[in-house]
Amino acid sequence: DAGVTQSPTHLIKTRGQQVTLRCSPISGHKSVSWYQQVLGQGPQFIFQYYEKEERGRGNFPDRFSARQFPNYSSELNVNALLLGDSALYLCASSPGGGEKLFFGSGTQLSVL
Amino acid sequence: GESVGLHLPTLSVQEGDNSIINCAYSNSASDYFIWYKQESGKGPQFIIDIRSNMDKRQGQRVTVLLNKTVKHLSLQIAATQPGDSAVYFCAENNAFGNEKLTFGTGTRLTIIP
């Protein structure tokens, strides 16, 4: 079975631009979470969606938004990009019970 | 405040030896813990998890120990192999059903041939 898939794998943007990152969860998983990982640090929670509803939100500005589609895939949008948004963006999926989150390989975003 | 920390940022172990990676957490309400392995250029890979109603859980070559009295978590890897070289993160969750994991900064494990 395919794991969590994310696209694109790498992305280069300039300050002020907008970006959309995509995630397909493991088949059968209804929950998707997004994390930001800055180089040298552990991942930080951004959002969780379950059955298309936002279940949790981390300490990130309103420039960050997300949604989940009927097929449980998800998009993360970041507006008005800043240099500090450069990071690895990780998507994780789970059946939805709060256990066993499985991560994708991430999208490496570079903001110039 | 809520935090998950690691005692050592780096650890070098001889191939074939056992390794122990430690993690301290500060939130006594945490009820679920996960260990992840992250190799360069990849996302975190699930290794093993444990709920707060358990003290020990074993997997293939790995054992997680949980000491709730001192809020300490450890990951033991038996007979380490070169492929075990990676950064290891512990993560905790204190809200069942909510997937807001709090990660530590990680420990880099290097296996010496």
Summary keywords:
A: mainly beta, 7-stranded mixed sheet, 4-stranded antiparallel sheet, 11 strands, 0% helix, B: 113 residues, mainly beta, 6-stranded mixed sheet
Describe it.
The complex is a heterodimer of chains A (112) and B (113). In chain A, 0% of the residues lie in helices and 51% in strands. Chain A contains no helices and eleven strands. The mean pLDDT of chain A is 94. Chain B has strands spanning 4-5, 10-14, 19-25, 32-38, 45-51, 56-58, 62-67, 72-77, 86-93, 102-103, 107-112. Chain B has 113 residues and is mainly beta. In chain B, strands 2, 4, 5, 9, 10 and 11 form a six-stranded mixed beta sheet that branches. The model of chain B has no long low-confidence stretch (mean pLDDT 89). In chain B, a hairpin with a 4-residue loop joins strand 7 (62-67) and strand 8 (72-77). Classes of the chains: A mainly beta (112), B mainly beta (113).
